[in-house]
Amino acid sequence: MFGLSKFAVALAAAVSIVPQAIAAPTELHPGNASNLIIDAQDTINGTIQGTAMAASATAASSNETLTLTVTNNIGSGVNCYVVGSDPDGGAPMILKPDFTWYYPSAPTTDIGVPQEITEDLAIPVSDSGETTITVPSYVNSARVWFAVGELKFYTVTSADGGFSVVQPSQSNPEDPSAGINWGFVEFSWLSATGVYANVSYVDFVGLPLGLSLTNTTGGVQTALGLEADAVSKVCDDLTAQAAVDGYPWDALCQSINGTVMRVLAPYDFMKANSSSGFEDYFTDYVNEVWSNFTDTPLTIDTQNTPGNVTCTVSGDILGCAGDNVNYTKPSTEDIFGCSTGPFVTSPSDTKVHQAAVPRLCAAFNRATFLLDGGNVQPSLPESDYYTTLPNNYYSKVVHKYEVDGKGYAFSYDDVNPSGSDENASGEVSSLKPKVLAITVGGPSSA
């Protein structure tokens, strides 16, 4: 979500990542700053910091405000944090309880050593009723965090004068905030594009959150999120599946003192564990798919100007007409993540490649290639997804507990046949937003 500076790359390489022993579930052991794992997913990087940015904050203001309302359905002790970057320079900024922006700074000494931010950043959420939060100006690539307790955020300075704000990580069992029940929604509010927000389970399932966006004409969009007890239900289902197929689905569950806090997506789990146990999960299926499309053409409906394109396998390579890249056999990690190996994309790729990658990866995760009609992707309805093994069982189970079926559970969960009204995106957006409402702890009772 946030760009990775040269410093962050170097620091990530310098921090030792010790593979965790596979357990069922994974036990959390909250640590301190020395236990942080710093990567692109959980950092906001900047070059202007502290007082230098604060001096220009007034000029950068949008002269508009955005109202966030929070309905708390989980109980006492809930705090909110709004963390993003300034659209006019990229400086990290965090909303204070008085609804003004705090621009973190980092010391010029202790290069590469994470320093905890001690500024009061927690915005208390009312135990009952509605809490109103005012966002005073535009913000880019933001997260609205909610936690039952207090989260820890850090800054780290690089040798070239840049710095990063380090946010809690769901994939590090020793993160200082690992023992806190938390979750976040992502949003941006920009002059040109208005508000875009989403609930997503691509990386993990945590504290259930739901969205509702009302625009200035009264129109409402919703993404209701997960059931109140979805985390434990998802974990129970994954534990049952581990007993069936022998793969460590139960290790995706993260617990502390017997309480499940979060459930990792398999891609995040594989990245955090060098010997995850999932390495060969899709191997036989990939071989079957390759064998099938050696003799039978695969049609990709690009759902755009290239139209339908034909793909065939020759040897170990899948090639599609009009595609600038051929496809090698994807690994299990490639399939779960949809962004590595044969699924890498770049802006210079042809329209065929940019369309084929999401459709191929979606078909692997949903295991639809070898079903009747699977020779055209996408063409099958949602009722056919995840009906055969192997599939992305995490994604299957997450969708089971979504209140309205909305919320990505893998990167290309928005791939659907033409004419379909299925929508798993979990996003809300408006050029003229009025109120972004967030529900914490599951949807409110009717």
UniProtKB/TrEMBL annotation:
This protein's UniProt keywords: Signal
Keyword Protein biosynthesis: no
Short name of one Pfam family: Glyco_hydro_64
Superkingdom: Eukaryota
Ranges for domain GH64: 63-426
Signal sequence annotation: 1-23
Record carries keyword Signal: yes
Alphabetized InterPro entries for the sequence: Glyco_hydro_64, Glyco_hydro_64_fam, Glyco_hydro_64_N_2, Osmotin/thaumatin-like_sf
Gene3D superfamilies in the record: Beta-1,3-glucanase, C-terminal domain (3.30.920.50), Thaumatin (2.60.110.10)
The protein's name: GH64 domain-containing protein
Organism: Talaromyces atroroseus
